[in-house]
Design a protein that fits this description.
globular; alpha+beta; transferase; Aminopeptidase; 5 strands; N-acetyltransferase activity; five-stranded mixed sheet; acyltransferase; 146 residues; binds coenzyme A; GNAT family N-acetyltransferase; Acyl_CoA_acyltransferase
Length: 146
């Protein structure tokens, strides 16, 4: 199976939406419809800091990487936070997840981003994939809900 990665476009909604629902279910999270609508709109809007790249197999969108580009204090170049990564359960293990991260790495090099990073749960089996890219650091996350 050949995997290709490209930017999200507005014709992708019918494919993206079930994947997004699968992703939020994976995190046992029930999002307001207005939030999903806003996420979709911002992912398509080139003026937004949100971006989305999709993986295709045989012309079908099977996965996505949703990212936020942000500024930082230790570099003047943009930093890319890979916030959401998801691949359709039926095609997992076909290289789509790896292809999405590799495509972001390549895009970041082209565009002059200083870093690509992501966080995951300690026990996420996907770390088998992540460990192929880099060794995890020892930072921990503190979150204050507001
Ligand atoms: C994580 C995820 C996107 C990986 O997508 P994928 O397309 O299956 O990954 P790939 O096929 O590119 O995997 C490449 C390698 O990593 C391994 N791998 C990837 N995900 C794995 C997982 N969940 N468990 C075990 N191994 C995994 C594959 O076995 C493969 O190893 P190999 O090259 O030695 O055979 C997918 O498993 C997923 O959507 N998981 C649920 C949501 C999730 O955890 N998202 C990430 C949150 S941080």
């Amino acid at each position: 199976m050949t995997v290709s990665v490209r930017a999200l476009n507005k014709e992708d909604y019918a494919d993206w939406r079930p994947l997004w629902d699968g992703y939020t279910a994976f995190y046992e999270c029930k999002l307001e419809e207005s939030v999903t609508a806003s996420t979709w709109e911002r992912a398509l809007n080139s003026d937004s800091a949100l971006l989305c790249r999709v993986a295709e197999i045989d012309g079908k969108v099977v996965g996505f990487a949703m990212c936020v580009l942000h500024e930082g204090t230790f570099s003047s170049a943009p930093i890319c936070y890979l916030e959401d990564l998801f691949v359709d359960e039926t095609v997992r293990g076909s290289g789509a997840g790896k292809a999405l991260i590799e495509a972001l790495q390549a895009e970041g090099k082209r565009e002059g981003w200083s870093m690509l990073y992501w966080v995951t749960r300690q026990n996420n089996p996907a770390r088998k994939l992540y460990d192929k890219f880099v060794t995890a650091d020892d930072f921990v996350r503190y979150r204050v809900s507001l």
